[in-house]
Amino acid sequence: MQEYKVAIIGGGIVGACLFSDLTRKGVSCVLLEAASDVSNGSTKANSGIVHAGYDPEPNTLKARFNIRGNQLYPAMCARLKVDILQCGTLVVTDEENRNGLNELYERGLENGVQGLRIIEREELHTMEPNLAEHISCGLFAPTGAVISPYLTCIALCEEGVINGGEVKLNFMVDKIEKNEEKYQIFAGKDSVLAEYVVNCAGVGANTINALVGAPEVPMKYVKGEYLLLDKSQNGFVNRPIFPLPTKMGKGILALPTLHGNIMLGPTAIPCEPHDTATTEAGIATIKEKVELSVKTPNYKKVIKLFAGVRVISGDDFVIEKMEDSHFFYTAGICSPGLTAAPAISEYLVEKLQEDGLEFEPHEFVQRKPYVCTEKMNKKELKELIKNNPTYGKIVCRCEKISEGEILEALASPLKPTDVDAIKRRVRPTMGRCQGGFCLPKVLKIIATYHGITLDDVQLNGENSQILIKE
Amino acid sequence: MNKTEVLIIGGGPCGLAAAVGAAKTGAHVVVLERDERLGGILTQCIHNGFGLHLFNEELTGPEYAERWKEKVAEFSNITTITGAFCTSIERAGDKWVVTASSSGGLIEVEARSVILALGCRERPAGSIFLNGERPAGVFSAGCAQKLINIEGKKVGNRAVILGSGDIGLIMARRLICEGSEVVGIYEIMPQSGGLARNITQCVQDFGIPLHLNTTITRVVGKKRVEGVFIAPVDEKLRPKYELEKFIPCDTLLLSVGLQPENEIAKNLGLEFNNITNSYVVDEYYQTSEAGLFCAGNVLHVNDLVDNVSAEGERAGECAGLYAKNKLKYAKKIEITHDDHIKYTAPKYIYDDKNGTAKISFRVNKNYKRTIIRALSAGKEISKRPSPAVTAGEMQTLFIDKTKILNDLHLEIEVME
Known about the structure:
The complex is a heterodimer. Chain A is α+β, with helices and mostly antiparallel strands.
């Protein structure tokens, strides 16, 4: 049986940050993920914003970890060699609600957000030509940024693996036994041993807590629906545009994604734990509310609807250790959870150390980023294709992704097998045709690489075959 | 850098015909095709019905493509390059430079004329705001067609089809032939967007239910499609949710429209038409940039491949003449039309009092009896009584240009 110092349950952004932090400190560590890929829950379906930190109530974990996480992101992205768009964020409103904006500004100062500035109409509309006419003032937070949440999460896990950690996919934890000083964590017949367990299971946090008798955390599940617009709409907004937040949340925003699409959303609708279905009502809400901040987007250019579920546990994050144990749990890591994740991890590392975990620093191995032929200049590209002709063979016409890039993703440290896992890494089927053209080609490349037949290839996890086996 | 007179992007039914048209002018022609073989989408269209107008025969897609490949092979001044994906078109003085990616390296070609012949793509689920979950088993009809016809695979056991465009109708029949069940075709509009012959031959002859004024409200299934909810729609196309009904199925095919695949030229500032979602052309199929031509489905989505090739061949001829500085211009006239007509292609003709101009257009809905008229200087210069015109079928009018005086207006008198 494989034995580790620390087992992390859940391969979302929190688990991934902790996995990366611990492995870099030389801790023997396993990340257990129930799905066929990491970043398959709330992490893959959220706005991808590194929040500045003006929003959370002062003196909460949310405020503290938001600010700290925001500080950690730029260096973390540089280390991981993943992109971060340092575009800042804007909260906008009309004259009537200027007081609300001022309050937000004050809260930001209290939380310690750097560089906050109230911007007036003329400058605002120059920065963002597609703001709604009634918008007269805005709060600009230059430290706000945009990342790809799934790619960042994947990169963290990859970094963990090349630095000695292990990721076990399709490992649905269903039993945890405490034997002497160790936990035996089961997924069916498979199991691993670990001295410390950290529950980062997101939507499944209570299920895991129940397995060790840790307290049940009050949880509300809230669905966030999004519309994704084609890259031709790039420039509709240049940075995330928020309406003035309300008690209900941050509202419907319009933002550029890291890859140049425009995204609108999210809604905030109470739901069942795994309900990621988009709804007519939700989409109508997005269309109505987005115009609180911006002009009417070009809905003819919508290419995808999607939704994610976030977990809310009261007013703050829950990050606890079960008494008389080496079991830690996190829950309710809703917004600004993505931003806070590196700081939550930093905090957990401290707590683990206080609990007796020892570090054995080793030489750090840096992760290699995926090649992106679209971003290369002609000279670089010529050289690349000369050395490896598969980089010249374009498979995904919308995102201009070559066979070489897909093969590279297949050979990457987590050994992804599903179409969606490849999509999250190098983007085939992510573009304006949504795989209408490239899906058959991608299936073939995956099948050939793994030596399986086309009808064995899954879309996203077990029982999601794309073709019918005959 | 390679040099040529005419460069054609796309080796499908438009691009191959364009190559022939251009080669006939004596121009040197290069065709860049992104796929490993020529023929474009025709290679996966194994049903027949192609070529009735151009070859007077009912050919299958691959046979039709073969006809054009044979014609292309007759010309020593045509070079075809497959596996070459164009990544950019740039202006270079009075020429164009096109860059393409291939496993042999980057290909750069300088040409006097460039023809966009890139065809079109299918609209995805998101573009029609299809709600619900996002499981495996949702395919665009053309994608399913490729998986079945080229890869020899089965896409589903029990399918529902949303939208009744031609590919959807053809795939309904194809699924039945491959042993799948087709529960029904659901069309939000009061009429099918497909050709009458496809409704008869693919749907009625196979007893497949076609439900008009009905749409899918949401997709159900965590991993693989488990079913869809359908509902009739009101006159504003809004679903009547109180009449929602669950239809179990494991596969959903979407045939919800096609869009020109013209993004490669989007940064060139070409005059654009929001109805066709593509560039505007004159009667030479030339865009607002001299030397850049656009024809076939990348210009406007056609229903007949014969028309695509006819446009391509004409565009090729004009591009060849342009490259040789022999394309003649006269006073440019903008074709205007009434509201029954959605757009015309071309949008401009030249008042050279010479020959005929072929004008294609689509109407906004189905009409049982109409008279289509062309007017110039307020006088009727052409008239075509039509028993019926449908939104799904492209209309064509030939205008005798000797009768044109300064303007050209198309109108439709609705009799019934």
